[in-house]
Design brief:
Strand content: 35-45%
Helix content: 25-40%
Largest sheet: 3 strands, antiparallel
Shape: elongated
Distance between the termini: 54 Å
Number of strands: 3
Radius of gyration: 24 Å
Length: 78
Amino acid sequence: MARILKELVKRCDGKASLTPRHVIVVRVASFAFRFETVERLRERIKYYEKRRAQAVELRLRPWPQTSEKIGENPGDGT
């Protein structure tokens, strides 16, 4: 499960900033992803939902069946 937080950024490009700025931080397992806007976060969610749907589709395809056994060479007569 992901944890979503809003954090205050105190520095920008290594320099202190007087303008308060926040980033969205999504923590999943031991990873942390930072997004500057909600729109950017939504773009990433849509992208990964699409990728996940493609992966599920690939998993649902049946594997091609072959009659050959491992280690046999077709045509050698064994």
